[in-house]
Amino acid sequence: MQSVSFDAASLKILEALQDNAEISNADLAESVGLSPSPCWRRVAEMKAQGVFKRTVLLVDPLKLGLAMNVFVHVSLQQQDKQSLEVFISAVQARPEVMECYLMTGEADFLLRVVIEDLPRYQEFMLEVLTQIPGISSIRSSFALNQVKYTTALPVKHLER
Q1: What is the rounded radius of gyration, in angstroms, for the C-alpha atoms of the chain?
Q2: Residue 159: is its pLDDT beyond 90?
Q3: How far lies 19's CA from each of 13, 128, 132, 146, in Å?
Q4: Domains and their CATH numbers in the chain
Q5: What is the pLDDT of residues 15-50, one digit of tens each?
Q6: Residue ranges of E strands in 34-108
């Protein structure tokens, strides 16, 4: 997919919306130094160009009792198309799997699993992961503390 060009005002809009997607157009325009109409047009143009994937609310996992982030390295017995598709389909169906990446290196996949506690993770591993055909190894690492978490993408490199 081709990248989109941004001027300084559009970059400010992008940064502001990544921080608070619920900001009113009037407040957004004021914060980036535009009048409301041109600001609204720029946002509409970015939407039309597919810059924004979707608008969501970020929920605090601790408020839901989801205290553990587990990073799971999964290796498959074979890396053929069918084996990859079987694994990908299985993890895409699991709400505990927040992220899944096909990797280079020692493991074929890296998962981020959010779950309540260690017994629940053990249950997830034994009843879900180990039941997926074609897995040769599973290695889990448990996050002790979330030092940084952001959903805002860096945009400084787009400045001209």
Answers
A1: 20
A2: no
A3: 10, 35, 38, 19
A4: 8-57 (1.10.10.10), 61-142 (3.30.70.920)
A5: 999 999 999 999 999 999 999 999 999 999 999 999
A6: 68-76, 97-102
